């Protein structure tokens, strides 16, 4: 998500940077381009107008133009305006993430259209609450229209290793909700996630059913799940749900896709409800907290180092990483270590997702994707290294033409691919040597601060 918008805005700012000194006219011209970029990203028109006006008020005038780095100032102002549009303004703190500050059993109501990812998200939230918040979670499907939906939730509960309320055919949604709360009270569950039925579009019957369940269960959180790929329709869906049912937060799914991002930027202004979580994949652990400041940084190509480091901390084996870092410092990093590293990177999820979080990578990302640098490439590289003898892995210099042929055949790849891997490894070793020469001082500590 946000890729095209990010690229457009980076282009606008690159132009500003090249100019050095800025006139009011330069800033106006840049703002015009920012406006077009936002419209193309499918941001709602009133939101675009408001955002551009806010930037103009702050950017046009003597102060910015006279400052030491005017372009940087303009970027900062746009960044701040984006953060505000995303709901990160003053007074918005504390509304992010799920609020667990209520007596047990705490009911969470999941609402949304069919296909938005509601059931998957219920499973993701259950997993997160069990693992990260150490809560005892009960999942219950109130979708009496589609028995398959109830089975799907049961399967998700199994994968998330949480309890699912047993299915009793013929019960009405309110009866199921009552049974869920009853079980939760008796069996001391901390959180009950009620997954309501969805429809293909908003209709009066759906709203009435959801509203009745809400009135009965008095949920602490009512989370609306919307699909980022549906753009402004997602915003209109959110507006309708908020007006007719009332929601405490929004979960936006499929942000791993190429949604233009306008929905995320319009959501707060149009619906008044905060985005609390993002769904970034089909897997159960693909759920992210929504941080307006980090998203704004991501849009402006400044990367999202904080999220990257957090993701790394969650997935990477710390002891293993330290071992590798030591080897790098000593210059004894070999292909066997490289294979380990590939495995760790693979665990962090899609490579293009990771790259998107790095500053300045936005523009390169498309090229990298074209070059097919993805999970399948990691797998092929692993296969190539697996086809080497241990001696070859420790001493890659040994690998000459005949060995390359054998390795390519053994791994089902080509000699070119083997060459590419060896070249990449060489480049990496070179870089490590240079980094070591620069001294370790700032590298490990300052690098991430
Ligand atoms: P529901 O009808 O709203 O309950 O939707 P489901 O939970 O059944 O999801 C519909 C489809 O979307 C499933 O194939 C999910 O795996 C997929 N899905 C859900 N969330 C995400 C997400 O964040 N990213 C991607 N790529 N797919 C998702």
UniProtKB/TrEMBL annotation:
Residues 274-287 form the SRP54-type proteins GTP-binding domain. InterPro entries: AAA+_ATPase (IPR003593), Signal_recog_particl_SRP54_hlx (IPR013822), Signal_recog_particle_SRP54_M (IPR004125), SRP (IPR004780), SRP54 (IPR022941), SRP54_GTPase_dom (IPR000897). GTP binds at residues 112-119, 195-199, 253-256. It is a peripheral membrane protein. Pfam families: SRP54, SRP54_N, SRP_SPB. It is found in: Cell inner membrane; Cytoplasm. Its main location: membrane. Keywords: Cytoplasm, GTP-binding, Hydrolase, Nucleotide-binding, Ribonucleoprotein, RNA-binding, Signal recognition particle. The keyword Nucleotide-binding applies. It is an enzyme of class 3 (hydrolase). SMART domains: AAA, SRP54, SRP54_N. Its EC number is 3.6.5.4. It catalyses: GTP + H2O = GDP + phosphate + H(+). PANTHER family: SIGNAL RECOGNITION PARTICLE 54K PROTEIN SRP54, SIGNAL RECOGNITION PARTICLE SUBUNIT SRP54. Involved in targeting and insertion of nascent membrane proteins into the cytoplasmic membrane. Binds to the hydrophobic signal sequence of the ribosome-nascent chain (RNC) as it emerges from the ribosomes. The SRP-RNC complex is then targeted to the cytoplasmic membrane where it interacts with the SRP receptor FtsY. Interaction with FtsY leads to the transfer of the RNC complex to the Sec translocase for insertion into the membrane, the hydrolysis of GTP by both Ffh and FtsY, and the dissociation of the SRP-FtsY complex into the individual components. Part of the signal recognition particle protein translocation system, which is composed of SRP and FtsY. SRP is a ribonucleoprotein composed of Ffh and a 4.5S RNA molecule. Belongs to the GTP-binding SRP family. SRP54 subfamily. This is Signal recognition particle protein. It comes from Falsiroseomonas oleicola.
């Amino acid at each position: 998500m946000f890729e095209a918008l990010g690229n457009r805005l980076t282009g606008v700012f690159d132009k500003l940077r090249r100019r050095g000194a800025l006139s009011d006219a330069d800033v106006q011209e840049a703002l015009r381009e920012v406006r077009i970029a936002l419209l193309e990203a499918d941001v709602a028109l009133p939101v675009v107008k408001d955002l551009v006006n806010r930037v103009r008020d702050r950017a046009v005038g003597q102060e910015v133009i006279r400052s030491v780095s005017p372009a940087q100032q303009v970027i900062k102002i746009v960044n701040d305006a984006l953060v505000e549009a995303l709901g990160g303004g003053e007074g918005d703190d504390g509304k992010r993430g799920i609020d667990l500050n209520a007596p047990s059993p705490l009911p969470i109501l999941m609402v949304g259209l069919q296909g938005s990812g509601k059931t998957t998200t219920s499973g993701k939230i259950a997993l997160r609450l069990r693992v990260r918040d150490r809560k005892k979670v009960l999942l219950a499907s109130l979708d009496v229209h589609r028995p398959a939906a109830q089975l799907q939730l049961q399967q998700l509960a199994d994968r998330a290793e949480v309890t699912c309320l047993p299915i009793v055919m013929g019960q009405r949604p309110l009866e199921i909700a009552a049974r869920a709360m009853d079980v939760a009270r008796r069996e001391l569950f901390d959180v009950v996630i009620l997954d309501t039925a969805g429809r293909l579009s908003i209709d009066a019957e759906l709203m009435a059913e959801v509203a009745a369940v809400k009135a009965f269960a008095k949920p602490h959180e009512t989370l609306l799940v919307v699909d980022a790929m549906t753009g402004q329709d997602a915003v209109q869906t959110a507006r309708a749900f908020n007006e007719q049912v009332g929601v405490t937060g929004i979960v936006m799914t499929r942000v791993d896709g190429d949604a233009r991002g306008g929905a995320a930027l319009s959501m707060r202004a149009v619906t008044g409800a905060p985005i609390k979580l993002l769904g970034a994949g089909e897997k159960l652990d693909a759920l992210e907290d929504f941080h307006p400041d980090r998203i704004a940084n991501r849009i402006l190509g400044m990367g999202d180092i904080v999220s990257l480091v957090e993701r790394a901390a969650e997935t990477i084996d710390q002891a293993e990483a330290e071992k590798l870092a030591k080897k790098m410092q000593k210059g004894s990093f070999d292909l066997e270590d490289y294979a380990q590293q590939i495995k760790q990177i693979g665990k962090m999820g899609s490579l293009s997702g990771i790259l998107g979080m790095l500053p300045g990578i936005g523009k390169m990302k498309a090229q990298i994707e074209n070059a097919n640098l993805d999970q399948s490439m990691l797998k092929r590289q692993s296969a190539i290294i697996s086809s080497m003898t241990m001696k070859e892995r420790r001493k890659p210099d040994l690998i000459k033409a005949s060995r390359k042929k054998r390795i390519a055949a053994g791994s089902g790849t080509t000699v070119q691919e083997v060459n590419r891997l060896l070249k990449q490894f060489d480049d990496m070793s070179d870089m490590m040597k240079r980094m070591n020469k620069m001294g370790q001082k700032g590298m490990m500590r300052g690098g991430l601060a």
